[in-house]
Design a protein that fits this description.
Length: 97
């Protein structure tokens, strides 16, 4: 989901081919988690957990949460409130100035 959002941002910002290629090179430094059945199940759990807590989340935020849950790692975000109802999710955040 993060890669999709970065690509969308680059297009919306009218980046040219050279700058988009630079973003692609930057992203090659990271492991990209591909969607599989267990990740889809984590996504469903994230959406369901948030809804049951009365804190519905967006589909894109659920993908980020599901990936963190599937990898058993914390989610780093400045929007912690978007993920509060997701059970089992560890959130790392920093309050702004």
């Amino acid at each position: 989901m993060t890669v999709v959002e970065l690509g969308r941002w680059a297009l919306a910002s009218n980046w040219g081919p050279a700058k988009i290629a630079q973003l692609d090179r930057f992203l090659q430094r990271f492991n990209i988690v591909l969607v599989d059945l267990p990740l889809c199940e984590k996504w469903a759990e994230a959406i369901n957990g948030d809804a049951r807590a009365g804190l519905p989340t967006s589909a894109s935020d659920a993908w980020s949460a599901a990936t963190a849950l599937a990898l058993n790692c914390p989610l780093v975000t400045h929007n912690a409130a978007d993920f509060q109802g997701i059970p089992g999710l560890t959130i790392i955040t920093e309050k702004g100035p």
